[in-house]
Amino acid sequence: MHANVLVSTKDMKYQEWLKYRRLGIGGSDVAAVCGLSKWKSPVEVWLDKTGQIEPAPAGEAAYWGTLMEPIIRQEFADRTGFKIRQVHAILQHKRFKFMLANLDGIVTDPSLGGDGIFEAKTASAYRAAEWEQGVPEEYQLQVQHYMAVTGLSFAWVAVLIGGNQFVWRLIERDEGIIDLLIQMESRFWKLVETGVAPEIDGSPASTELLNRLYPESKPKSIIDLPVDSYKWVQQFEQFQREEKDAALKKEEAANHLKELLGDSEVGLIQGRTVTWKTMNSERLDSKALKAAHPEIAVEFIKTSSYRRFTVK
After folding, report:
1. Helix axes 175-194, 137-150, angle to 10 degrees
2. Could you report the per-residue pLDDT of 211-235, keeping only the tens digit for each?
3. How far is CA 305 from the centre of its chain?
4. What's the predicted TM-score (pTM) here?
5. Which domains does the chain carry?
6. Distances from the Cα of 138 to the Cα of 28, 40, 225, 302, angstroms
7. What is the rounded distance in angstroms from the CA atom of residue 38 to the CA atom of residue 35?
8. Which of 12, 11, 8, 6 is nearest to 26 (CA)?
9. List of E strands, the chain
10. Which residues contact 204 (CB under 8 A, 6 or more apart)?
11. What is the pLDDT of residues 91-105, one digit of tens each?
């Protein structure tokens, strides 16, 4: 294995681990850096690496994934007869120091000539189709990144799907993909080092970045926008019109279905379920509270500010 050991993770505290992972791009960052993640955008990764946001707390899926990792590792070893050893370290590419790897294990497969990457995953039953013919794209990029860091030539990815289906897939090293990853990650890391944000897009992370950079407007401040920015005004107004048209068409379709349902709660058609269900919720009537008990209401008034965007 051709990689530096950046730091040992044995007995490392979680907060310290987070500090080290900000020193580079890890396997779970790669799909987002490439703009191919379903869950994160490049801007969100950039905000994390530059210390401008705290990492989102691990959700239920991540919790169970971590809990199941040793079980999946052992099950894979039992079913294949391959030996797996754990790597209690953050590994670092020898040349591109920003490329980091936290491996689930190193697997020895004699039929493939030696050592390779082992990666354990869990997936819900809803994602079973993604594993039928191969490995989801974001995980392919993750293990190609790991192979780039370590110099290893293959990876076995084992996944427990829906809690009761266990499969494993082989991914071989692809030099073309690795070259592209190195180029894209290098460009991204230069943005981290220089503090220049990735190109703004329509993702929630881009919106969050702008809100963080410019949380308040200067009262009565006016500037002349660049001439070429008029294209964004035109684009905003075009999509605003299309959004309104789409909302009306969506509501029309919903209303036709509601008319067919009548007072029925559920309708079935061609394997799909249409629901129009009575829901009850409770909320504080702040207007009535202010009228009846103004002295109490004032104690619980919270003032918040935000920037409203309009084009006229």
Report:
1. 90
2. 877 888 898 899 999 999 999 999 9
3. 28
4. 0.73
5. 4-194 (3.90.320.10), 224-266+283-312 (no CATH)
6. 8, 11, 39, 42
7. 9
8. 6
9. 4-8, 83-85, 89-92, 100-101, 105-109, 114-123, 154-161, 165-172, 266-269, 272-275
10. 41
11. 999 999 999 999 999
Tokens of 142: 């993750």
Contact in structure between 307 and 214 (CB atoms under 8 Å): yes
- Positive or negative, the CA dihedral 238, 242, 243, 248 is positive
Which residue in this structure is represented by tokens 């001439």? 227
Interatomic CA distance for residues 3 and 147, integer angstroms = 10
- Cα dihedral value 74, 79, 83, 84, nearest 10: -40
| Separation in Å, CA 71 to CA 95, 104, 134, 201, 202 | 34, 12, 22, 40, 40
* pLDDT tens-digit readout, 4-34: 999 999 999 988 988 999 999 999 999 999 9
DSSP state of 87: -
DSSP 229: G
| Measured distance CA(277)–CA(275) in Å, rounded | 6
- Euclidean distance between the first and final Cα of the chain, in Å? 60
Q: Are 131 and 159 in contact (CB under 8 A)?
A: yes
